[in-house]
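chain below, 573 aa
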Amino acid sequence: MAAQDPFSLAINAVENDMANEVLDRWRDTAEQHATIEVLPPGMDMKTWPTVVALFQEILGDDGVLVGHQHRIRYCDPYAESPDEQEKRGSSAALLPATVEQIQAVLKLCNRHGIPIWTVSRGKNLGYGGPAARVKGSVILDLSRMRRVIDINDRYSYYTVEPGVTFFDIYRAIQNQQKNIWCSVPALGWGSVVGNALDRDHANQVCGMEVVLADGTLVRTGMGALDGSACWPLFRGGYGPSYEGMFSQSNFGVVTKLSLWASPSPEGFMFCRVDVQNEDDLAPLIDCFQPLLLHHTIQNHPLIGNLPREMVKRGQRAKFYAGSDAIPDARLKEIQEELGIGFWSARFALYGPKDIIEANYKRCEKAFETLPGARLTGKATYPPAGKKYLSPEDLPPEERTVETGTPSLLALKAVEYRGKDGGHISFSPVLPPDGSLAIAFYRAAKKICASHGFDYFGGLHLYPRHLTMINMIYFDRQSGVQRQNANKLFVALVHLAREHGYSEYRAHIDYMDLVAEQYDFNGGSLRRLNQRVKDALDPNGILSPGKQGIWSRKDRQGGELHKLQSIGLSDSPP
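prediction:
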């Protein structure tokens, strides 16, 4: 978002141009607001320049950003509020390149009580981006820590630092001709580590290196055995396992992480199934669930509704001119115009040809029970002389995320309601049960419509759960849409709780609200998190308020109360 070199990480020039167009728009929007100097909490104007100079001694002049260029790079590009800087603007950004620099920064921040908000690359779009929760925080940006430490295709894992993007790891795998495929998200410019820590790939994590708030360096699992070759191979280690504790938390700064990957397959088939009717969602989910549980399908299917398909074909105004939710009758017309199902699912099959063909037949048999379902599949196998398939063996247009190929094509979706678009992601977790999913979908769609929004759904299916991600798109130039998006999100959180569900991650504005929903035994899990926080970070400097976890000083009258006073927290002290 800023005065940086043009973005060039994507695999092709078209996506790089798209990214730079979006970055320029974010910068232009940010430039509309004057830069105000923000100081860390409790810091005065006399002391702050001295502290900045000490940061520069640690990181070099180019490793410390303050003022205008810092502001336009480290704000939420999809912020609902035009006065975000006044509410939670950060004071500086620090860009370390080594563990030792992080340790020195933490020592200085502990001495002065300066809150730090850690980001790997700051691309957590729809959840706050690189912005901090507490006004005056310094942003600890780990994007310069960009080493791909190891790629091992004998055991199918890789070890990286937080600044490594999905484009970086993809290129490294191809350049080293390693026979592994990685899982990738919709947008490949984000951090592999940051993405895993937010739970998208948490099941593949095996081994972390973490700097605690006091500067102590810890390796989890077998990494605690100095020089162990089993660190990225065996999760258990000896004693308690801590990987989960450093996911979605503010207990430490993760500086290295290993992820398990998939061996390169001997074949790949991209599959799609369309169903015609809105109510077909329930039987569609029920068809998928046993196929996933029995590993017939080895990746996770993604089910999208009609509006989710529409965004690939242009802005909303192309299909409907009204400001209200698109009526069902018009949706039916659009469906007929596009010639697609109301729900469309995509998934993949992997393995030798006989395995793929056998599994495809199982899928055909399963979907035959759903009237009107249309299943298609296209298989690709290695060229002559090769045992394993590489994504590079496919035509560029067929290198989808299912092949481990990162992309930025989904970036344009944010323009659904306007060129200067924003979105919030609402992501509750449900059982993979069709009747429960359709009931919640109906209720959520009704609430979306009452606030003037289409239900924009993407359901990610797993053997034992699903995440029903609802993208709330709004035009950032519309104050009404921004306000209604906020009201809608809060209403959806409460609706989910009424149904017995809640989110697995949350935008920074709503972290306390979502934490409150986890209310078993009076919120005993949250209190446990607070006790751990107080033990590991007694000064409360690391990402205060992340996931609703606050230190004792903030709970007893500090930053939490300030957030409540400006409406950025519904949490009790």
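The two ends are 35 Å apart (CA to CA). Confidence is low (pLDDT under 50) at residues 564-573.
thats it, cya
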